[in-house]
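Lab manual, section 2.4: Encoding a predicted structure.

Procedure: take the sequence of the chain (111 residues), apply the prediction step described in section 2.3, and record the output as structure tokens. A sample record is shown.
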Amino acid sequence: LTAKQDFAAASEAGRVVVLDTRITDALRRAGMAREAVSRIQRKRKDLDLAYDARIEVLYVAHDELGVALAEHAPYVSGEVLATKFEPGHVGTEAESTEVDGIPFSFLVRTV
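Recorded output:
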């Protein structure tokens, strides 16, 4: 079994699986949102927050990352237990990192 370009294929015991391996813009943005969750969760750990502590997150993100975070705000909020997750002024105490090469700064506050 040989897969065509942009697909992966496998067969075993009379079963065939074919996967589309193209990364769409929507899939890329969903991945960016998951990476942002990872960065925020790491900050929660650094702050030694209780696992059920509620937080507020203000962030600065541009380009496709900003679009991704706006599209996936409910997902991000739910994963990091944020009662507030929105773009805003983060000040000098913000955590600064990158997601897929795009600058991402965010501020975590406990509620």
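Check your result against the sample. The first strand starts at residue 7 and ends at 12.
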